[in-house]
């Protein structure tokens, strides 16, 4: 994508701006010359409008692409957070179960503490 889409927009020649002030249209030749300058200016304006429209369409498409990318990244980040949370909760639950089992085993007076070390958890 071009960094400056406005760089290619043309400029009217300086004499085109001065047509109304400096050009007499009292003869057929001078009127035809003035009309040619005006037509050239109108053609340039049409060309520039097309370039501006193309640049605008390009910017709108890029904006839409960035909006979709932002939405995708937000969604991916949310899924990663959900997975990390679920993993942490699972590990915590497993540790709590092991702690309760160990506490229950040691709570029995009939079990020797050395023998409790060899029980599977």
Topology:
Elements: H1 14-17, H2 19-22, H3 28-107, H4 113-116
3D structure, described in words:
The model has no long low-confidence stretch (mean pLDDT 80). The chain starts with 13 loop residues before the first helix and ends in a 5-residue tail after the last helix. With 121 residues, the chain is mostly helical. It contains four helices and no strands. It has one domain (5-116). The chain has helices at 14-17, 19-22, 28-107, 113-116.
Helix segment tally: 4
**SS content category:** mainly alpha
Query: How many strand elements?
Result: 0
Task: Compute the number of structural domains.
Answer: 1
Low-confidence stretches: none
Overall morphology: rod-shaped
Mind telling me the C-alpha Rg?
40 Å
Order of helices and strands: HHHH
Percent of residues in beta strands?
under 5%
The biggest sheet, with number of strands, parallel, antiparallel or mixed sense and barrel status, is: none
**Helical content (DSSP H or I, runs of 4+):** over 70%
Mean pLDDT: 80
How many angstroms separate the termini? 62 Å
Features of this protein?
single chain, 121 residues, mainly alpha, rod-shaped
Q: How is this structure best summarized?
A:
It is built from four helices and no strands.
């Amino acid at each position: 994508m071009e960094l400056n889409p406005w760089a290619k927009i043309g400029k009217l020649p300086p004499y085109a701006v001065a047509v109304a002030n400096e050009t007499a249209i009292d003869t057929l030749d001078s009127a035809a010359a003035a009309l040619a300058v005006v037509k050239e200016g109108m053609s340039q304006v049409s060309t520039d409008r097309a370039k501006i429209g193309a640049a605008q369409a390009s910017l709108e498409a890029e904006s839409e692409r960035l909006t979709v990318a932002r939405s995708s990244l937000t969604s991916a980040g949310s899924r990663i957070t959900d997975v990390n949370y679920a993993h942490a909760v699972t590990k915590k639950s497993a540790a709590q179960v092991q702690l309760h089992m160990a506490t229950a085993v040691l709570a029995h007076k009939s079990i020797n503490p050395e023998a409790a070390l060899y029980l599977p958890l």
